[in-house]
Amino acid sequence: MHRIHGFLLSATAALGLASPAAAEWHKAETENFIVYSEGKEDRVRAFARELELFDALLHQLHGIERSGNPNRPTIYLVDSSRDVEKLSWSGVGGFYTANEYGTYAVGRNSRIKTGYRLNGNSILYHEYAHHFMYRNFNSAVPAWYSEAFAEFYSTTVIGDDTIEIGRPANHRTYSLQYHDGDSVAEFLLAEQGDNTSYSRGWLLLHMLQSDPGYAHRLATYLDDFRNGKSLEEAAKALGDLDRLTDAVGHYGRGKLQFSILDTTNLPAPAITTSLPDPVEQELISIDLLRRSEMRQDEPIRLLKKLEQKYPGEPRVKFALAKAHHDHATFVDEIYEYVEELRRTLAEEEPKSEKIEDLEEAIAYNIKEYDLADKAKLRAEQARAYADAEREVDVVLAAMPDHPRANALKGEILMHKAAKGEDDQWRAARGYLVKANRLSPEDPLPLYLWHKAYRDSGDEMPEVAHMGLRKAYVLAPESKKIRNALARDLADLGQFEPAIAIAKISAFSPHAWTTDRKLLEDIRKMAKLPRS
Question: Which helix (H) or strand (E) holds 122?
Answer without folding.
Answer: helix 120-136
